[in-house]
Amino acid sequence: MNRFRSLLLGAGLFFCLVLLSLCLVGSSAITATGRKKTPHTFTDVPILNYHKVDDYVHPLSVSPEQFEQQMAYLAQEGYTAITPDQLMENFNYGRRLPTKPILITFDDGYLDNYVNAYPIMKKYGFTGIIFIITDLVSQDSRYMNWEQIQEMKNNGFLFGSHTLSHVPLTKVSDERLRRELVESRQLIKNHLGQYPKYFAYPTGAYNRKVQKATREAGYVAAFTIRYGQAGINSDPYGLERIPVFRCPSTQQVFEARLTRAPLLERLGLVKH
Length: 272
Hints:
The protein is α/β, with parallel strands linked by helices.
């Protein structure tokens, strides 16, 4: 009986070794022919949301001095600015991102983004994406013109749509909803030579109907004003961001909001 058990154990061990060898050989062969897929490596990414960079005392305004302090902090802490394309390639295909990725976004397309934020970001080697209200470009002196936008685009910045008129999309007719999405996209293509792939919801207002219309209009992803990091569990048409506001202790609040997002998510206080 003991001898029979020994034979069974020996046969089982031999069979396991054969299977292991076949697996190793198969793995090597797949790697050699380039067919083996690299395991996905998904990364949670903080997405900063700015509006104005000027000296006005307004919640949406960050002073140029504060903005430079924030960019200097990001550079000192080793953050690397990424593009929305890199973000989506990580989400969809697991393509690796830098060790400390960050995506910097601006809403509305104010002139101070060009005058104040742009040179500071160039100084620290950062780029970002600006979501523009296309009916105001080159029409309102508070906003950028197409020549300034083209210059920034030539230096690595991206531009997405923030609709034609900044109307809350949850409060308009289906026809107006489609027009705001499609015509603003077409205007950007007319001036910059390519369709924008990314969109930010005006006033942060969206619902499932708006998300569906955004996707059907040709956008790859859309950004909200919900606080949190964007991660593998995020809806690509409901991407979270970290809003940056003016306050008495702007830098301390900036650092806290940036670094505490992962902790709040782990505690379930912020949901993707």
